[in-house]
Predict the 3D structure of the following.
Amino acid sequence: MSCSLSVSRNFFNYYFVKWGLKEKSRLTLNTHPDPILFNINVDQVKYNKGLLKSIFRLVKEKKIKYYADTNKILVYSQDRKHSKEIDLDIDTLETVEKILSCSKKFEDIEHNLFMVELDNNLKFLIRKVPVADIVTLKETIVNEEYAFLYPYIEGETVLDIGAYIGDTSIMFCLKGAKNVVAYEPDPLLFNLCTRNINLNNMASKIEVRNYGVSDKESLINKKGYSFVKPELLFDKERHSVAKEIEMKILSFSKVIEQMKEIDVLKMDCEGAEFPAIISTPPYILKRIKAIGMECHANPEPLIDYLKKADFKVEIKKEMKTQDRYLTILFAVQEDN
C-alpha cells in the first residue's frame, strides 16, 4: 500500500523522505471528521514499513476516525465487525487493528502495554509496539500453530526454548501438560513472560528461566529489534538502530541432561536452534518423544541430524522470502 492522494493531501512529503530529499516531514492524513498530522522521519521509512503500510491502508479504507477535540481515535477491525476508541497514539495503530481481529476485549494497562483477553479466557500483557507480540498470540493461541504437539503433551513435561511472552508455555498447560520448564534470554521478554504466567494463575505449573541455549555456555551481547520487532538475532544483524542486549546462554545438551523428565520440546530461538541441536549427542536427544521447532534457515542440516537420533521429521510450515527462510518442523521418535 503506497502513500497517495487518497491517504494524504500532501502525500509527496512521504516520498521526499523516502528518496532522501528530506530527513523528516509531516503528512496530513485524510481522516474524518478531523485530519491527523503525522510526523515521519528517515528511520520510520527505513525500518517501520509495516506500520506505515498499515496506517496508509487504514486511512484509505476509512477504518480510522479521529476526533481532535478529545484527541481520540476510533479503529475498526479488518472485517469492520469490531472497533475500539483509544487515545491518539499512531505508533500503536497496527497493533490495535490486529488485536481487534482476534479479541473484543483489551485495555490500556501501562504506558507501553495493552492487556488482551482472548476467547479462551486467557489474558496477556503485550507491548503496544512492536506489533510482533499480538501477531505471535494470533499464531500460537488463536491459530494454534503448535497443535500437532498437543497429542503428546497431556500429563507430560514440556521444555519450552524461546518462551517469548509465555504464550506457548501457557497454551501447553491449558492443553494438559503436567509442567513446563521455559527458557527466555531477553530480560524484557522474560519479565513479560513471568507476568503473563502469573496473570493466568499458572506459576505452579510453569518455571521460567532467564537463559538462552546454544552449543556452549557463554555471555553474549546481541542486537534485539528496538524499533521494529523484538526477536533476538543469533544469526545476523539487521539494522543499525538495534540495541545491545546482554544474554546468558547455556549449553542445550546440559539443559536436557539436568532435567529429571523431558517428554516434549518446543524450540523457537531465532537461529540458535542449529548449534543447540547439532551439538547435542543423539543419545541425549532420544530422551525427547516429540519436537516442534521453528527454523530460521535451510532446515536440511537439522532434519538430517534429527533422523540420526531416530526421529521421523515432517515440515509443518514453510515460508521463503528474499531475505528470510522460515520453517516449522515436527519430529517424533520412531517408536511413538
